[in-house]
Amino acid sequence: MHIAVFDLDGTITRRDTLFPYVLGVCLRHPVRLLRMVAKMPAALLRYAFQGRDRGRLKEALIVATLEGLTRAELGQRAAGLVKRLADSGLHEEALACIAEHRRRGDYLVLMSASPDIYVPVIARALGFAETICTGVRWDGMTLRGELVTENRRGEEKVRCLQGLRQRYPKHKFAAYGNSASDVPHLKLCEGGHLVNGDDDAIREAARANVSIGWPHPQIAPGRRPQKT
After folding, report:
1. pTM as predicted
2. What is the set of domains in the chain, with CATH numbers?
3. Which residues on neighbouring strands pair with residue 56, listed in sequence order?
């Protein structure tokens, strides 16, 4: 049995999920669209000239557009996002691979840099057992929006994967990602696969000896892993 770790945006979904989610909320709350237009240029300039910190940029977008909304409101929007993805926004190969791992009794983990505002909802809809994603701050039932974890990308995914390995030391790992920033954690797995990648990602995966393309998993079935 394997621990099967899937990235979300671009790996399972056909495109990024955060901006469409935010835009969907803003279209229903036009004042928030104005807040985004007013606040994001400065955030983009900071991103461009102060280290290209994707976490800070993500935080700025979430705070500018979603701060003050309730869990119920954001949950409704998350449910709508899941429906739109199910209609036409998911890679069929990804769904087939998830289903194959599930059939073989593997433990499914969704690991994404996208925020926990909606990623756990997507994970439950797709049948994942566990979610690792970027955490945001809440004030009770109301969103504040600042990040409370590191942005789950690049080397942070390596750290999260190492944490999974410590919890499940007797199990082999399969992992799927689509970008060059996924290669560092993919190469640490017995079955790491770069899928849906652009030219830069493919070159990076080739240098790291990471498999390119969707596999046809031949993994012995088993039971859910026991924590140690």
Report:
1. 0.92
2. 2-212 (3.40.50.1000)
3. none
**Amino acid letter for position 75:** G
Chain CA centroid to CA 137, Å: 18
pLDDT value, residue 1? 84
Residue-wise pLDDT for 167-213, tens only, equals 999 999 999 999 999 999 999 999 999 999 999 999 999 999 999 99
HEC assignment per residue over the chain: CEEEEECCCCCCECCCCHHHHHHHHHHHCHHHHHHHHHHHHHHHHHHHHCCCCHHHHHHHHHHHHHCCCEHHHHHHHHHHHHHHHHHHHECHHHHHHHHHHHHCCCEEEEEEEEECCCHHHHHHHHCCCEEEEECEEEECCEEEEEECCCCCCCHHHHHHHHHHHHHCCCCEEEEEECCHHHHHHHCCCCEEEECCCCHHHHHHHHHCCCEECCCCCCCCCCCCCCCC
With beta carbons less than 8 A apart as the criterion, state whether 135 and 147 touch: yes
**Going by C-beta distance under 8 Å and a sequence separation of 6 or more, which residues neighbour residue 86?**
125
* Residue type, position 189, single letter: C
Read off the pLDDT of residues 58-116 as tens digits, 9 standing for 90 and up.
999 999 999 999 999 999 999 999 999 999 999 999 999 999 999 999 999 999 999 99
Phi, psi of 225 (to 5 degrees): -65, 150
CA 66 to chain centre: 19
